[in-house]
Amino acid sequence: MLVNWHDPDHIYLVCGKTDMRKGIDGLAMVIAENYGLELYNNSLFLFCGGRNDRFKGLFWDGEGFIMLYKRFENGYL
User: Rounded CA gap, 62 and 49, in Å?
Assistant: First the structure.
């Protein structure tokens, strides 16, 4: 299932460098341990790494987590 972009109640931008090798479990731990936010409350969490052309997103769709990955081909936004 794809994310309905009108569906999330909140969108959080996680500041700082995130290890982009992390998967769903690792990103969920970052949110739970560092920010104390509820993962299952219809929120989209966006992460960036050391480079400005790669982003990951984590979203709970009601059945499971969706991990999104975006890499811009021109090297920047």
Answer: 27
**10-35 CB burial, b ≥16 within 10 A, e <16:** eeeebeeebebebeeeebbebbeeee
Q: What is the CA radius of gyration of the chain?
A: 12
Tokens of 53: 């052309």
What is the C-alpha end-to-end distance of the chain, expressed in Å?
26
Instruction: Give per-residue pLDDT as tens, 23-67.
Output: 999 999 999 998 888 888 888 999 998 888 889 999 988 888 999
SS3 of residue 43 by DSSP: strand
Tell me the two tokens of residue 46.
Answer: 């966006």
| Spatial distance between the Cα atoms of 54 and 40, rounded to a whole number of angstroms | 24
Residue carrying structure tokens 């984590």: 58
